[in-house]
């Protein structure tokens, strides 16, 4: 018998459809071993040896796997193809007491079996059968890289977090990567707080040609000297220009026409999928990865954790056939893409549909609405990548204004564009908006309709949203695309950051305090270059260029020294934080003081822990958010998103007259439900 072990029941069910004969496909339900939650679980004195345990929830299923493994002649480990999947395969061997050799070594207690490791980028019949015909051994370098990451993260979390408890309160955490992401958000917030807006003015003219429609031109130069963005700094200056243009003669100075092309983007990687789903579908990164996982396990898309934009020859051929048959030959252009990401493996593929003939319209009948939207995005991006450029006619009209008796001349410019061939945008619409201009030629007279000086102020840098944060994390080499969702989820769950109505990430008071503490006492932990360096080291381990123990040691020894030196600082700083008040405790008559807790500042008795009297201000409940749906119970009210004790839920706006309530899945209760547009406007 051949036993195939995968991570999830859905994946097992899909693969079962493609194998025949005496083959059993079972699921490990994720990790079968992990570090204990109750203690550090790492022997730092003996080469950072991890002490793995089998979690209680995994024991029952592991017993089943052991029984089936005992009956099998061959055991096939078919976990995911990334580092974590390789690690799960290795842990399965260890937990099942099996050896990755056909001959038992002397003195070894492990039972020997024919152990095979297979990987595949998509769950299709062809891919599964090909993988079964081409097994390999477990890649210990990938296992070591994942183990090193896990150990580094555990050392930081379990050693540094208690220091934050001493400084502030229990429940806080610091992470090797999450803290750097938090710092990026906090630093941006400090930029916004320090920003001072500057005034500037623009001058626009609405002009009418002798034949055609009016168009708007912007003042670009005075006396043939180009104007900078801030050159008109006051209303007085703008009014002087407007007055000088009173009675001016307006003529077309020049007209330039050029053809501009727009090329399709590469198919999705993990990072670009998360960014685009955030912008176009307003999905959180966590939501995107959860939905993509389901699509992959069902066999509809290729593996969703990838840095590569490579496409297989088979997928390129299928795309060519689909496009030429359904859109016509003019809409097909073969394209290949080169992966720029360091450490990406070209053998892996981009995220794409497994079958381009499985269209979004067809899949909408099989999938739930959110899965269907994500599949639509992935399918369109892939098909568009094999289509020609869009062609655009771009027109620029230069206008000269001068007045007899004035010593100045003024140049204005209008720009417009019209798409002449839609190319890839036929499948993957872009934000392009046509702006036609009238047909004019040099020296044509123009009539001024309106002249509008307008005041502006410079704007502060924008807060990060999930898409822009992921972009900067990728640029700086912080974490890896497969970890972005968990990084963002962690800083949100810990209460360091909140997502506002515009989906911007705003640091909360405690998040800023934690970063200030870490920057002061543990600058390396929140340094982007240091963290990026550690990621590069992990990549070297995965490629067999470095051994994992020296890499962990290089990080831990200076970290442990700093930690030992800072143990007393946190407690002393916390004591100095207490603020006095003029209130007296109504239970023991001791002075009341202001302290800081998980939910912000609160007033408590100074006689704690003898007296535990606390006064808290009641927090305002966020106002309901519209979902764009009508109530399906009373049909009169609207469904709105409310926030309750256990997170967000959907209810009728006519409450309490209508008590219609719809619960959200647990993983979505922190995600606002908003009406999702199919295309980005």
Tell me what the structure shows.
By secondary structure, this protein is of the alpha+beta class. The protein folds into 6 domains: about 1-140, Rossmann fold, CATH 3.40.50; about 150-195 and about 465-575, Topoisomerase I, domain 2; about 200-265 and about 390-455, Topoisomerase I, domain 3; about 270-385, Orthogonal Bundle (Topoisomerase I, domain 4); about 580-615, no CATH class; about 625-670, no CATH class. It is about 35% helix and about 20% strand. The strands form 7 sheets. A 6-stranded antiparallel beta barrel has the order 9-10-14-13-12-15. The protein has a 4-stranded parallel beta sheet with strand order 2-1-5-8, sandwiched between helices. The chain has a 4-stranded antiparallel beta sheet with strand order 18-19-20-21, with no helix packed on it. Strand 20 and strand 21 form a beta hairpin. Helix 3 (about 85-95) crosses helix 5 (about 140-165). Mean pLDDT is about 90; it is low at about 100-105 and about 670-680.
